[in-house]
Amino acid sequence: MQFNKDKFKELRKSRKIKLTELSEKMGLNRNTLWLWESGRTQPSKKMIRLASKHLDIPENKFSDLSPAIKTS
C-alpha cells in the first residue's frame, strides 16, 4: 500500500483543516498525523479510510486504495 504524504498534507491544507483539528476528529494524537505527513510512519488502511472520511476526500486522492463503497 502506498500513502502519498505530500498529497495528504496538500489536501488537508486546501480544506483549511489544521493538524490538531483533524487529529481531534479522528481521535488520534497530533504527533501521529505529523509522523504520517513527515513520512516517518505509514497509516494503516483503516486510518487512511478514517482520514478520508473526515477530510471528505476519496482515499485514492492520497493513497493507492480504491474508494470504499458507501452503503446506506
| Secondary structural class | mainly alpha
Strand content: under 5%
The backbone outline, from C-alpha atoms, is globular
Computed Rg: 11 Å
Q: How far apart are the first and last residues' alpha carbons, in Å?
A: 27 Å
Largest beta-sheet characterization: none
Count of β-strands = 0
> H/E element string?
HHHH
Number of helices: 4
Helicity range of the residues?
A: 40-55%
Unreliable stretches covering 5 or more consecutive residues: none
Mean pLDDT: 91
Topology:
Elements: H1 5-14, H2 19-26, H3 30-38, H4 45-55
Helix pairs in contact: 2-3
3D architecture notes:
This protein is mainly α. The protein has helices spanning 5-14, 19-26, 30-38, 45-55. Helix 2 crosses helix 3. It is globular. The model has no long low-confidence stretch (mean pLDDT 91).
Describe the structure concisely for a colleague.
With 72 residues, the chain is mainly alpha-helical.
